[in-house]
Amino acid sequence: MEVMHSLRQIDLFRDLTEAEFDHLQDIMHVLHVSRGECIFVEGQKRTAIYFVERGLVKISRVDIEGREHIVNLLGVQSLFPHVGFFDSGPYPGTAEAVVDCTLFAMSIAMFEELLLQHPGMMQKMLRVLGNMIIQLQSKLQQLAVFGARERVLTLILHFIEEHGRVELDGVHVHLPVTHAEIANMVALSRESVSRIWKDLRREGIVKGHKEEWIFDLQWYKSLLHSQ
Questions:
Q1: How confident is the model at residue 145, as a pLDDT?
Q2: Half-sphere exposure of 180 (CA within 13 A, CB side)
Q3: Nuclease among the record's keywords (predicted)?
Q4: 170 is a domain residue
Q5: What is the rounded CA–CA span in Å between residue 209 and residue 40?
Q6: Is pLDDT at 2 greater than 90 in this prediction?
Q7: Which helix (H) or strand (E) holds 120?
Q8: Do 100 and 50 share a structural domain?
Q9: Whole-prediction pTM
């Protein structure tokens, strides 16, 4: 019953009938992944699609010089991988649990069959993929034209939108990410990110620590309106 409730929270599945949900439960299994454990590795044969029920998953790729580049951080209800449907290509990146995670997993073949049987679900899937393309295009543009502080602020806004919750004392973001990982995501040095973060603390914009950041609510609203 708990699995059914969690699946219903995923937008992709909300329009399914009771019978279709029963079938979905039959073909999907629950996977528990420990912090630091890889779910799949870049280049590995693609066999399954995953949905985050609890936790945080890091998606990364390795360049030709062996350096890791963090592509995204995925929270509750996120789907991954986002590419490779209806072809036999390998996983395009590596997925690693940032914290202990609970995932729903389904074979790629069964998921593709489900999409073909439900045009409405296919349309939602196309919207999800379209939004991902827009986000990646926006990120490339930001890296090309934004200064260091603007890159960090834009990433913070993304973190808040994806993982934040508004409370009386500010916007809370539970995201165990280091300055080095933030630097990786915005193509800056760790020292630059640490310096910008120190400035944000001094300005009263952020407090707390990496396990639970708290951002000033008025600052967040003004940043949101400036985008």
A1: 65
A2: 2
A3: no
A4: yes
A5: 29
A6: no
A7: helix 119-145
A8: yes
A9: 0.74
